[in-house]
């Protein structure tokens, strides 16, 4: 499974194009990968899923055996799940808001797929993103310093 997640991460980076970081564009992007269903279905792990990959089983929300959720309910699940994904991304990547859009979408997509605790296991990936940000910041600082010394 880890290899398939790494493959997905690379695929996301290649296919993202230019997306803004609005809820609607996150939603449209995630629908491409997760699909959208107002009806509850069972995934390959036996979990009950609805909306844009919202896991009713993991969240103990499948107690009433409701089979259909209206658009407002699905949107509420999406906004809740997105806020968890963004919070996790910001927690693991202090400079998340300043990252390249493609990297942001990749991070959110991975968290969406494996969950916050699963994402925590990607320690090398997390470290490499954070080190890259630090390196870029250092490079920018050195360029500014060089310009000021040239004057």
Question: Could you list the spans in which at least 5 consecutive residues all have pLDDT below 50?
Answer: 6-20
**Could you report the average pLDDT, rounded to the nearest whole number?**
82
Helix content: 55-70%
CATH architecture: Orthogonal Bundle
Query: Which band does the percent of strand residues land in?
Result: 5-15%
How many discrete domains?
1
Shape summary? elongated
Structure class: mainly alpha
Structure summary:
With 151 residues, this protein is mainly alpha-helical.
Q: Characteristics of this structure?
A:
single chain, 151 residues, mainly alpha, Lysozyme, three-stranded antiparallel sheet, 5 helices, 3 strands, 64% helix, elongated
Could you explain how this protein is built, in words?
With 151 residues, this protein is mainly alpha-helical. It has a single domain, classed as Orthogonal Bundle (Lysozyme). The chain has five helices and three strands. Strands 1-2-3 form a three-stranded antiparallel sheet. The longest helix is centred in the last third of the chain and has 28 residues. The N and C termini lie far apart (54 Å). About 10% of the residues have low confidence.
How does the SSE layout of this entry go?
Blueprint: H1 2-15, H2 23-34, E1 37-42, E2 48-51, E3 54-55, H3 71-92, H4 101-120, H5 123-150
Antiparallel strand pairs: 1-2, 2-3
